[in-house]
Write a structure and sequence with these properties.
The complex is a heterodimer of chains A (118) and B (109).
Chain A (H helix, E strand, L loop, with lengths): L4 E3 L2 E4 L5 E6 L6 E8 L3 E9 L2 E4 L8 E7 L2 E6 L8 E8 L12 E2 L3 E5 L1
Parallel strand pairs in A: 2-11
Antiparallel strand pairs in A: 1-3, 3-8, 4-5, 4-9, 5-6, 7-8, 9-10, 9-11
Chain B lengths: L2 E3 L3 E5 L4 E8 L6 E6 L6 E6 L3 E5 L2 E6 L4 E6 L8 E8 L5 E3 L3 E6 L1
Parallel strand pairs in B: 2-11
Antiparallel strand pairs in B: 1-3, 3-8, 4-5, 4-9, 6-7, 7-8, 9-10, 9-11
Classes of the chains: A mainly beta (118), B mainly beta (109).
Chain lengths: 118, 109
């Protein structure tokens, strides 16, 4: 398996532009997670899906952020309009199960998208 | 509030043993993870604890005490490649995933 695939790997954009980040989870994984990582705040969970349905989006910072999962093999995270404070590395992760006792809940992370908003 | 505390940085010598501590305060508890993250790379899974006690996996062990809200990651026979950040993460009672800001470990020759 190729693992979790994210695109683009790097994105540089100007304030006010729309940004779309893409993720392909590992085939057969029912859970998909979007994270944001910055030096100041560490790794923060933004939203996660189970079987393509959003379960918890309480980490989404504001209405400028939206996420979709139209099918089991694809998800997007959109920022519109983007702001300089959105600059961060955005990770997508997938796992087979969510919580015990069904499994060990290992999440497999993609390589991340480094977003810079000027 | 919900909080996870880890030391920001630690330094140790190749071949030594190091213990990275993590304390947490969350609304309920459904498990604790440790992840390793090398600079510029994605986090990778190290361990998962949901019951009290020690889980051993090769050179790495993870301990959990739920009553104390405390965990540690023990790394033995340190190697240069163990230089990385180590992230402690907790699943709260409402299945929220909360990560600490990580401990940067530097292994010196």
């Amino acid at each position: 398996d190729a693992g979790v695939i994210q695109s683009p790997r790097h994105e540089v954009t100007e304030m006010g532009q729309e940004v779309t980040l893409r993720c392909k989870p590992i085939s057969g994984h029912d859970y998909l997670f979007w994270y944001r990582q910055t030096m100041m705040r560490g790794l923060e969970l933004l939203i996660y899906f189970n079987n393509n349905v959003p379960i918890d989006d309480s980490g989404m910072p504001e209405d400028r952020f939206s996420a979709k999962m139209p099918n089991a093999s694809f998800s997007t995270l959109k920022i519109q309009p983007s702001e300089p404070r959105d600059s961060a590395v955005y990770f997508c992760a997938s796992s087979e199960t969510e919580v015990p006792p069904k499994g060990n809940n290992e999440q497999f992370f993609g390589p991340g998208t480094r977003l810079t908003v000027l | 509030g919900q909080n996870i505390d880890q030391p920001t940085e630690m330094t140790a010598t190749e071949g030594a043993i190091v213990q990275i501590n993590c304390t947490y305060q969350t609304s309920g508890f459904n498990g604790l993870f440790w992840y390793q993250q090398h600079a510029g790379e994605a986090p990778t899974f190290l361990s998962y604890n949901v019951l009290d006690g020690l889980e051993e996996k090769g050179r790495f062990s993870s301990f959990l005490s739920r009553s104390k809200g405390y965990s540690y990651l023990l790394l033995k026979e340190l190697q240069m490649k163990d230089s990385a950040s180590y992230l402690c993460a907790v699943i709260s009672g409402t299945y929220k995933y909360i990560f600490g800001t990580g401990t940067r470990l530097k292994v010196l020759a």
